[in-house]
Amino acid sequence: xxxxxxxxxxxxxxxxxxxxxxxxxxxxxxxxxxxxxxxxxxxxxxxxxxxxxxxxxxxxxxxxxxxxxxxxxxxxxxxxxxxxxxxxxxxxxxxxxxxxxxxxxxxxxxxxxxxxxxxxxxxxxxxxxxxxxxxxxxxxxxxxxxxxxxxxxxxxxxxxxxxxxxxxxxxxxxxxxxxxxxxxxxxxxxxxxxxxxxxxxxxxxxxxxxxxxxxxxxxxxxxxxxxxxxxxxxxxxxxxxxxxxxxxxxxxxxxxxxxxxxxxxxxxxxxxxxxxxxxxxxxxxxxxxxxxxxxxxxxxxxxxxxxxxxxxxxxxxxxxxxxxxx
Amino acid sequence: xxxxxxxxxxxxxxxxxxxxxxxxxxxxxxxxxxxxxxxxxxxxxxxxxxxxxxxxxxxxxxxxxxxxxxxxxxxxxxxxxxxxxxxxxxxxxxxxxxxxxxxxxxxxxxxxxxxxxxxxxxxxxxxxxxxxxxxxxxxxxxxxxxxxxxxxxxxxxxxxxxxxxxxxxxxxxxxxxxxxxxxxxxxxxxxxxxxxxxxxxxxxxxxxxxxxxxxxxxxxxxxxxxxxxxxxxxxxxxxxxxxxxxxxxxxxxxxxxxxxxxxxxxxxxxxxxxxxxxxxxxxxxxxxxxxxxxxxxxxxxxxxxxxxxxxxxxxxxxxxxxxxxxxxxxxx
Lengths: 326, 332
Description:
- The complex is a heterodimer.
- By secondary structure, chain A is α/β, with parallel strands linked by helices.
- Chain A is built from seven helices and 15 strands.
- Chain B has helices at 36-47, 82-95, 145-148, 157-160, 176-185, 205-213, 307-331; strands spanning 27-32, 52-55, 69-70, 80-81, 99-101, 105-109, 115-119, 123-131, 135-137, 153-154, 168-172, 191-195, 217-220, 223-229, 236-241, 247-251, 254-257, 261-263, 293-295.
- In chain B, helix 6 (205-213) links the parallel strand 12 (191-195) and strand 13.
- The two termini of chain B are 27 Å apart.
């Protein structure tokens, strides 16, 4: 059965970095570009090219210097290639937990554990506002956000996946290797995933697709027993042993922080003027701050500021007063 | 497309609503400065359908146009020439309807609406103004310098340090900036030679201590750079000891100059608040002390002189100008 996330990573090799950037959108990729160019060993952990708000944007025309129209995932792809060219490492991985007060700071992901002397949080604002009834109560008891971590526990059983993006489809395909049947609950009638991925999912013999279907309740006493779903046509209960949730909303993604950092009313991370959070060496940039306009150039500029602040933190340069003369 | 002309009488201030009457005499927004901040403001204002004039000033493209290759503007994964990047900003602004003209500001009057901006040959009126006139690094004014600016002579280690891995560089100056950026350069360069005209540094003690403790840093005291040497690339500098008068050559692959910056604010002094160094004071949303006047880019931020930061502040300033205009329209 699914266990508390994290325990099975203790044996894996720990990678060490100067800076770990969580999130690879314009803020995160730009932060990595600048830390890499400052010769800091940099890792970017991101769920994939199309996991963020820019990746989902079909047309960008107002990013300065790129007359466009350019697809969002192409623009963010270029930013990542640029950071990678200067030595930043990108890992497609999902961050599950972080211990930001530890020294060095520790980040657990679906694939392992990483240590960084500084952390930049650039996870964006596609987080969820509402939980499904039963979700929190049964978390770790059949409810999971990570098929790569927990999929093997569901060998030969039925599971449900709620979501419609690349991540949801990829995770469903992972689950289909173990589960006897994957019930794929898409909140929209069309999948918002890459055509190749979507095709692979719909063609898969052990996947049943439920378009325009919402998960209404996760049912079970000690363990997940079923999921109650609703579509415009009908309401039904599907018996499953696990529910994997990849739904997107519009609040900052901070759940992996588990209240280590204060947030404002809208769930936005609170930072000082140097984009440092209340924990020294932990910075934030981009939509996760949500006090600004949601523009690519602005998120990227915050990435520069967070990277510069991280570099100053690591090199004890905080007191710098530029002595520009008139 | 915009089809209005800017040819009003030079001395009479038009009625604030003249533009509404279809005369097109008053711009919604006049942007002073044609660097990344000003042109990005033009992109955003044009897209918001504001009648926008960008007065690009004497140095079209701003500081970035003096850079041979920009590698840290996010989204340009193969790098881009500074001039080409500036041209792209301009084309994009024009495509969205902003009018970009050359011409340096000679005077402004922000005391009444519409706001007035004068160049040598024209007078322009705007409901809002964004000051994005930039800041100019001071150079040495010695032979060889001009030729290598942007390709061997730099004022930004953050921008160009990466190119000097394993090389030797000269840093000119003795303040915090010179030492901080010099220390930054030691991550890449095999040796950083600080040339300073006095026998002691002006920098904060902690920077001095770090610089003296760093084995890659070397100091040449009481010396001024007289010439930057090289045919195709920088090969070194000739320095003169101001006490002994003796000259010598220091071999180097790059020269980083930190002898001060000058914000281009002489035309707005007295009209909006400036700080002790002459930079425009703004709040986080790029508002200056004068309602309807905003500032963006290096002219209001001496700290991080990066293209994308300037561009982002230009975007914010344009959005704020648009909001200011909308709020005004509501109260009329």
